[in-house]
Amino acid sequence: MSGGSYYVPASSKWPILAGLAVGLFMIGTGILLVFDTGLVLVPIGVVAIVAVMALWFRDVIKESRSGLYDDQMDRSFRWGMAWFIFSEVMFFLAFFGALFYVRVFALPWLDGEGAKGVSALLWPDFAASWPLMSPPDSNVAGPKEVVNPWQLPLVNTLFLVTSSITLTLSHEALKEGHRDTTRNCLILTLVLGVLFVCVQGFEYYEAYHHLGITLQAGIYGSTFFLLTGFHGAHVTIGAIILGVMLWRIQKGHFSEHNHFGFEAAAWYWHFVDVVWIGLFIFVYVF
């Protein structure tokens, strides 16, 4: 909108509906975890969240395409996306922090080292090591083997790093007005993202059925699936977002100077890529 005025959106029902959808999903998840029932609420909640997001973003796209947004609104979107990614950084830092705490503090304490070495009285025969193949509690079976980082994880690392490069090329092509190159590089990025998810699925199958790495395989199994599982979910969400960007490119949306929707998707994808580098180093290699 020209003239330096600030666009104020009309009253919207989507925030309250989004809150209700997320609440339904969380209630279903809580019931499932505590009472092992109520599974039907979880998919209903997921469908409700996706539907609200799709309809809400549809309205935002319509407003943007109608020329209602000005530079101030663009800055608002950028700050909003920046804070969202910051919240995601904190989300993953919490899990990396848990991994750090276990490896640097908890395990040495159980082995009699450090300020809380008295913890060794719980399991006097325990010897600290990582990956923890033999949990101190004999009722918990540790993994048989660990995932070789130089096989499937390395392949997935190459997939994601390459996808960030192709997405950057797609973004640069969009800024230069080369829409065919934008589309082709974005398609390649999507293919690499789907390959990543497929390879991780195969890795999970091998881990569960051949390596003994499960959620019940002690602290190593739980942290492994917590970190890699949430990351895989983010890759899947990112691929869906990029799929929407591809659809919008096909529809003729975006211009050389007005394409923040595409740029925000690229920010998110690069963030997911950086998180994977951290996972590869601290979960698989060291």
Automatic annotation (TrEMBL):
Coiled coil: none annotated. It comes from the Bacteria. InterPro entries: Cyt_c/ubiquinol_Oxase_su3, Cyt_c_oxase_su3_dom, Cyt_c_oxidase-like_su3, Cyt_c_oxidase_su3-like_sf, Cyt_c_oxidase_su3_a-hlx. It is found in: Cell membrane; Membrane. Keywords: Membrane, Translocase, Transmembrane, Transmembrane helix. GO terms for biological process: aerobic electron transport chain. Pfam families: COX3 (PF00510). GO terms for molecular function: cytochrome-c oxidase activity. Belongs to the cytochrome c oxidase subunit 3 family. This is cytochrome-c oxidase. The lineage of its organism: Bacteria, Pseudomonadati, Pseudomonadota, Gammaproteobacteria, Oceanospirillales.
